[in-house]
Give the backbone structure.
Amino acid sequence: MALPRKFLNQDEELLAELRPHWIFFAGPLAAAIAVWAGIAALLIGVHVPDWTSYPLLVLGAVPSLWLIGRLIRWRTYTLALTSTRIVVRRGVLDRDTIQLRLQRITEINLAQTIWERLLGTGRLVIDVQGEDDSLILEFVRKPAIVQRVINSQINELVGGGDREPVPDDMLPFAQRPAGRHGTGPPSEDTPPFGTSPVEPAADWHSQPPPDTEPAPTPLRALPAPPPTATSGEQIRQRLIELDDLRRRGILTEEEFAAKKAELLNRI
């Protein structure tokens, strides 16, 4: 569960949010696997009375409920680092909230076994000014990095130094990069989500000529020359040609007479 904004002051910035390491589930998960594997082996390999099935199911439900309860505790546990405080919220029905101002921290110590070092988890022991008891944070994921981030924030707050950047997988849940599961910033070459990369415009000099030629522009029809008057010599020559066709039998007398009358009308 993310830290509600109501826990932050007006000028306070939420820098990091963490949940316990997955080793938090190791005990109940191992118990559930072992119990259910034993029940399955007993039911398959050995003939048992039918009435024993119900007690076995109850026996298997005990570690399963333990695992479910641990999952709920994991979901409701939040370790948050702000610009001025460390806030720890935990509890399901009874909510426990611890707020520790960074100015009161005197030492931050890291405790890890060899197995915890291999798994990337550990405990942070925070000494508080004016308190005899230390604040112990267990099942911290990447505790060395968390220790360094907290120290750099204290250095900026008290000594005026530069704050170390917070890794993406420790950012507040709402601020983690989408699509990368909190493993790092999105690549500069990757386009924004939902858009396609823009292809560079091709040089028009390198483009091959099109396969089809453009349609030629239709030519306008030239105006017909004005009719000229037919000269007498042309009419006479035309009449000689028509008479020759009449003598050959190509034109009849009626056709010859009609053409002759038409030519004579042009004079």
